[in-house]
């Protein structure tokens, strides 16, 4: 039986670089800049936080800290194309998330002051240890490039291929160079965006031209002291707290939520802090209202104590309206349309405060 790529060439995936003059550059070397990852120039696989912090938090965070959600490589080039050579230690697959989101990279070109999607580096479905892919750039460069890393897989090595002799320079700074830090669940990590650039944090980054750090840990964001202390130590322009989905119970949420807020606030007296309840979509859980009340209580107590740089966003509003049932893949994890709704509402609140 013919494959879909043989039937429809528009759906065929090519992983042929096809240029003998390609020159490979490690993504860890200057002038390429890596954002959203912890000490990206260090040896070994890319990681989102110190491994000792991950190990002290819980086994899920220890495993997921090497997933590269929110990682970006940025640079300027006049090469007619950009290629990648990506290697992995293992390959994860999920039936309800596109492989381009799990292990794809996508590329944006800055044009007229905004980043515009050019294409995805599409991995083959039978990928085992990594892959190579190439995207041609439009005429009229040099171009400022952003390559978004995979959301639900690790990357042990990334090389960026340019035509030999091409310009390679460091990118411009973000308008807001101090990152927004996001902490939360699988939705925060990016499940189930079709590609990395459609996670809500990446959309907000393009909307506001701001750097960010994604500390979403699928099924594993529980507000432990170890991760709270680490996040409080970070330099950030805002903190978005969205771990309601992963708190094992209302009691657990009540025992950790205000404590986490206070740890962040103690180290950052003037930092914008957004407290978010989980998106309450088609099927309401019995304890959804009680969970929302815990988060609102943290917010209202902060207000009563004079905190004027804290906000509460009711997740029930994210997917509200007549099309609410079309904003998720499975009743929980957003489609790209769902992530756009989240980005618009969270981004609007951040824009007031950055």
Keywords:
354 residues, alpha/beta, 15 strands, 27% helix, globular
Verbal overview:
The chain has 354 residues and is of the alpha/beta class. The protein has 10 helices and 15 strands. It has helices at residues 4-7, 51-57, 59-64, 99-102, 186-189, 200-208, 225-232, 250-267, 288-304, 336-353; strands at residues 22-26, 33-35, 72-77, 81-87, 105-111, 114-121, 130-136, 143-148, 157-163, 168-169, 176-184, 210-216, 238-242, 273-276, 310-313. The strands form 3 sheets. Strands 2, 3, 5, 6, 8 and 10 form a 6-stranded antiparallel sheet that branches. A 5-stranded parallel sheet has the order 12-11-13-14-15, sandwiched between helices. Helix 6 (200-208) packs across helix 10 (336-353), helix 7 packs parallel to helix 8 and helix 8 packs parallel to helix 9. The radius of gyration is 20 Å and the shape is globular. The protein starts with a helix and ends with a helix. The mean pLDDT is 93.
């Amino acid at each position: 039986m013919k494959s879909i790529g043989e039937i429809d060439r528009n759906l065929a995936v090519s992983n042929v670089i096809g240029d003998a003059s390609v020159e490979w550059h490690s993504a860890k070397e200057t002038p390429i800049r890596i954002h959203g990852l912890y000490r990206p120039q260090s040896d070994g696989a890319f990681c989102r936080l110190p491994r000792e912090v991950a190990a002290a938090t819980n086994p899920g965070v220890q495993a997921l800290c090497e997933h590269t959600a929110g990682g970006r490589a940025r640079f300027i080039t006049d090469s007619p194309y950009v290629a990648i050579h990506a290697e992995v230690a293992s390959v994860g697959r999920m039936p309800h998330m596109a492989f381009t989101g799990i292990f794809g990279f996508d590329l944006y070109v800055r044009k007229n002051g905004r980043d515009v999607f050019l294409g995805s580096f599409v991995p083959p479905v039978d990928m085992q240890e990594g892959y190579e892919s190439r995207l041609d750039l439009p005429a009229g460069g040099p171009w400022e490039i952003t390559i978004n890393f995979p959301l639900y897989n690790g990357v042990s090595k990334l090389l960026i291929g340019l035509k030999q002799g091409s310009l390679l320079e460091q990118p411009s700074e973000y308008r807001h160079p101090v990152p927004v830090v996001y902490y939360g669940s699988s939705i925060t990590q990016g499940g189930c965006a079709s590609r990395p650039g459609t996670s809500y944090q990446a959309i907000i980054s393009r909307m506001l031209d701001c750097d960010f750090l994604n500390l979403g840990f699928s099924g594993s964001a529980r507000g432990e002291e170890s991760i709270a202390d680490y996040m409080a130590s970070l330099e950030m322009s805002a903190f978005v707290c969205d771990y309601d989905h992963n708190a094992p119970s209302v009691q657990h949420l009540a025992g950790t939520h205000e404590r986490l807020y206070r740890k962040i606030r103690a180290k950052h007296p003037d930092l914008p802090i957004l407290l978010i309840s989980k998106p309450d979509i088609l099927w309401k859980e019995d304890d959804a209202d009680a969970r929302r009340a815990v988060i609102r209580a943290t917010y209202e107590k902060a207000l009563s104590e004079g905190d004027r740089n804290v906000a509460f966003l009711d997740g029930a509003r994210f997917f509200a309206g007549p099309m609410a049932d079309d904003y998720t893949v499975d009743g929980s994890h957003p489609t790209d349309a769902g992530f756009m709704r989240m980005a618009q509402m969270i981004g609007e609140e951040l824009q007031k405060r950055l």
